[in-house]
Write a structure and sequence with these properties.
Elements (H helix, E strand, L loop, with lengths): L1 H15 L33 H11 L3 H6 L5 H34 L11 H39 L8 E10 L4 E10 L2
Antiparallel strand pairs: 1-2
Helix pairs in contact: 2-5, 4-5
Length: 192
């Protein structure tokens, strides 16, 4: 009987006095009022002609479309690619002229710079080799020029998309202790 009274008294105390173990996290004591209205990032309406304009600028002067899109870091890459092609074209053209002139001198019966070190067939093969490399260099130059135009166009198209910080795609590597090997993969994370 005495235990019933003690238990009843304890239950009474629990319900009368709100005993809590932690603070209420849902209670808002003093909400701060913001003076300014927070906006999303500066919204710019999509300009449908921007991709064509960027491609046109890149066709006029390589790298100008990237500058129009605000991707200034791509301009040195464009000129490095085109410049590499031009360098190898000039180098291969110089070597092709050298072997061609030696072959012409040999056919005319004159002394050429290679003398007896290189045969006539080797001179013909060297001319073909450097002519082919000249043509490949022209293709590299044209490829970087076209890639420059395509990049400016695609980059202008992709500027309308909002990439949220809540969505991320990261490479992931885990070590498997059982097999002793690494596992590679890609993790897609979305933060609510």
């Amino acid at each position: 009987m005495k235990t019933n009274r003690v238990l009843s008294f304890l239950f009474f105390l629990l319900f009368v006095f709100k005993l809590t173990a932690q603070e209420d996290s849902l209670r808002i004591e003093n909400p701060e009022v913001l003076d300014t209205i927070t906006k999303e990032k500066d919204y710019k309406p999509y300009n449908a002609l921007a991709p064509a304009k960027a491609a046109f600028y890149s066709a006029i002067l390589p790298g100008l479309g990237q500058a129009y899109n605000g991707r200034y870091w791509k301009i040195p890459l464009v000129y490095a690619g085109i410049g590499t092609g031009v360098y190898f074209y000039i180098n291969n053209d110089k070597e092709w002229n050298r072997y061609r002139d030696a072959y012409k001198d040999r056919l005319a019966g004159k002394e050429d710079e290679f003398g007896d070190r290189i045969s006539t067939d080797a001179l013909i093969r060297a001319q073909e080799f450097y002519r082919r490399n000249k043509e490949i260099s022209i293709l590299v130059i044209a490829g970087f020029y076209v890639l420059n135009i395509i990049d400016a166009n695609v980059d202008a198209h992709l500027q309308q998309f909002n990439v949220s910080e809540d969505l991320s795609l990261k490479p992931n590597m885990e070590f498997d202790n059982f097999t002793g090997k690494s596992k590679y993969g890609v993790s897609l994370n979305y933060r609510f």
